[in-house]
Design brief:
mainly alpha; Rhopdopsin 7-helix transmembrane proteins; Arc Repressor Mutant, subunit A; 2 domains; elongated
Length: 376
């Protein structure tokens, strides 16, 4: 089997291949280095691995000679459904109050990985049947739609996460880190737009162009060049962001107290107003398993920021604040005539307390009286 490529296609293949190599090398560096934030490095490393694998898959498909084997037609390289979750995981890991993605974000990427590897190891008869009955008739089109929806959805989530961090949390590194994250989101949006454009235009190229030299072949190789160029930029940017900047070492001014979290004036009050509105409309305190990180995530801030706002703005801890709301809810329910048939304990449990002892202790601490004293 021989390859007959134009000079343009050879040049494009070298650029794309270089992007694959650079991304793989930098991804390995991020994966095994000790400095920097681990979750962010891991997410970026696998993002580079998956991106490089996708570009390599494009190269294999475009370079595929006539009468190629099934191993070339179904290479185990396509894991594009994980690009969106990995990007979102990296964004979250770089923001204050970093949290990991819930497991269900990885269901569809895992299914794609199983399908990709399964097709690679499947016998030729199974591959032929899959191509004839599944991939060619409908899945090739569905695959493009699913990728667009997945990456597009996670781009929206990533942008919202960065916007919330910029709005609610004022950190010294905001001007540099958030700029990089927004540029990363923009670059990923370019990837999505290029993918949509080429997927939509490929039927036109097939029907109108019947030449390979500087024709359709050159066009599809151009897609690989665009992807590889973004890979170069993402790999170098991810590596630079993983290295602590020199300005954090040579600090001449007196640093602010860490527990203030550099919140701008008036932001504590804004947080308190948003918290009060959330408690009034959603009543999350009725959930007995509600935790500080969970409430902070609902509000779009870190748990440290929320704890600081409660201490600074109300002079209470998270536990005292939530128990105070639960006690107020229990008092209101105890005073209602239609609750006469309910036990005091059942009302306390409905108000968000997990046990009788916790209910009685919090009630006495807040009101100075026993719950039964509030019966009509």
């Amino acid at each position: 089997m021989t390859l007959q490529l134009s000079l343009t296609e050879w040049f494009a293949s070298l650029i794309a291949g270089g992007g694959v190599v650079v991304s793989m090398v930098i991804g390995a560096v991020l994966l095994f280095r000790h400095a920097g934030r681990g979750p962010a490095n891991y997410s970026m490393a696998f993002l580079l691995f998956v991106g490089a694998s996708a570009v390599l898959n494009e190269l294999v498909v475009n370079l595929r000679p006539p009468n190629a084997s099934w191993a070339v037609i179904f290479p185990p390289l396509l894991y594009t459904y994980s690009l969106g979750p990995l990007l979102y995981a990296y964004i979250r890991a770089k923001l204050p109050g970093a949290t990991t993605l819930p497991w269900w974000h990885w269901i569809i990427p895992a299914a794609q990985a199983v399908l990709t590897v399964g097709l690679f190891v499947a016998p030729a008869s199974a591959k032929a049947a899959y191509m004839e009955t599944v991939y060619a008739p409908w899945y090739s089109s569905l695959e493009d739609v699913l990728f667009t929806l997945s990456l597009g959805g996670y781009l929206v989530l990533s942008y919202r996460a960065v916007s919330r961090a910029v709005r609610f949390e004022r950190f010294d590194w905001e001007r540099t880190n958030h700029v990089w994250l927004r540029r990363l989101i923009l670059g990923s949006t370019v990837v999505l737009c290029v993918s949509i454009t080429f997927n939509a235009a490929s039927p036109v190229f097939y029907s109108l162009l019947d030449v390979d030299l500087y024709g359709y072949g050159g066009v599809v190789f151009a897609e690989s060049v665009v992807y590889s160029a973004l890979l170069y930029w993402m790999a170098l940017g991810g590596l630079i962001q993983a290295v602590p900047t020199a300005r954090k070492v040579f600090v001449t001014e007196t640093p602010q107290r860490k527990e203030h979290y550099n919140l701008r004036p008036g932001l504590v009050q804004e947080h308190l107003e948003g918290l009060a509105m959330h408690m009034k409309t959603e009543q999350p305190f009725l959930d007995p398993d509600l935790t500080l990180p969970e409430l902070a995530e609902q509000l779009g801030v870190s748990d440290k920021i929320l704890s600081y706002v409660l201490n600074e703005g109300k002079g209470v801890t998270y536990t005292d604040y939530i128990n105070g709301l639960r006690v107020a809810e229990a008092v209101q329910r105890l005073a209602q005539p239609d609750s006469a048939n309910l036990t005091v304990l059942s009302i306390g449990l409905d108000a968000g307390f997990k046990s009788k002892a916790t209910f009685n202790r919090a009630f006495k601490k807040v009101t100075g009286k026993a719950p039964s004293a509030f019966r009509p």
